[in-house]
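Trying the structure run again after the queue cleared.
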Amino acid sequence: MSDFSGRSGGALVTGGSGGIGAAISVMLAQRGSPLAFTYRSNAETAEQVAATVRAAGVDAHIGNPPLEDADAMRAFADEAAERLGGLHTVVSAAGPHVPQMYLSQTDPALFAQQIEADVIGAFNLTVAALPHLRPSGGSIVYVTTAATTVFPKRDALSSIPKGAVESLMRAVAVEEGRFGIRANCVGPGMLEDGMAARLMADGDLDERALEVARTNIPLGRFGKAVDVAEAACFLASDAANYISGQKLDIDGAFTI
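Done. Tokens:
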């Protein structure tokens, strides 16, 4: 597939060293797009992803600007657009670890921290990217969560901020459509890799909880990061050129 090989410019992906972000970065590259991507702290993994992207025959540029820093995010977007010759796609796959806890037990400082990382970070990325997406009539895809459709207990730190991000994307779809910009979200459910994998490793989800989760998924299994990457790349491609302001849950029919 070469969905993006005919486009000028490249893609910007945040969280490109994470499970979902890496899968999206590599798939964009394999389908013809050079890209710039961010990482938070794991430089070694970021370099490995960059090497895989370059092996696909396209350029890769990496950096670790804090998404909460508007000036740093704007500088990285400008740098990426200059190096890649513009931007046709922006994908946000960045997200801090989200501990599972009841809302009543959540410390206000932790909640504020999550809002800053998810919502303020999303706003900063969006504002930084829009000037570069307008000339190309480009696309924004944000990775949120299926939990904004069906709320699971103890997931408030993820679903509440990401609900705000989905509202942000609807605002972009309505206000920036005049420039040809499309804005959509993908909502991962339980995955074998990505955030769910970290929750399993940390013990937030034990074997009993995992079995209950599988039982509640009509397909009877967890997804993979590549499933989310397929959806994100579809929404960014010309095959979805009349889809905007929408959210596609990647969850094995859990939210039905």
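Residues 17 and 44 are 9 Å apart (CA to CA). Worth checking whether this holds up in the mutant runs.
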